[in-house]
Each structure stands twice: as structure tokens, then as C-alpha cells.
Amino acid sequence: MGSTIIDSAIFGDIFSTKAMRDVFSDQSRTRKYLEIEAALARVQGRMGMIPAEAADEIVKHCAL
Asked: What is the pTM of this model?
């Protein structure tokens, strides 16, 4: 059972499409958050704001 109308098996396609629900899914949103964190770590590592080894470790763990 869905927690919102968009998640509803009955009403979901009235208000959205599967493709758009996939774009805004928890998994997709979390993946984008992790991509941002990895990019931030890379830049901070290059700029010397954090140690390069720390940046590499952060990037390594930014995957679902």
C-alpha cells in the first residue's frame, strides 16, 4: 500500500508517470545526494581543504 497518492497502485498514474516517479524515488534522490557528496570531497581534496586520502575514502563510500 502506498503512503501517498503518487505511490498508490490505483491512483498513481493519474497524477504522475512511472518515469517521473523513478526520477523522484528515494533511491534516485539518495544516489544524487551521494554523487554531490563525492564531488564535494573530490574538490575539497584537490584544494587541500581535507586530506586527499580522506577524499578518496569518502568517494569510495558514496555508492548505493
From this structure: 0.72
What amino acid occupies position 36? I
pLDDT in tens, 36-57: 999 999 999 999 999 999 999 9
Alpha helices in the chain (DSSP H): 12-15, 18-23, 26-47, 52-60
State the Rg of the chain over Cα: 17
CA 25 to CA 16: how far, in whole Å?
A: 12
Read off the C-alpha cell for 33: 545526494
Contact (CB, 8 A) for 64 and 31: yes
Task: Supply 50's cell numbers.
Answer: 581535507
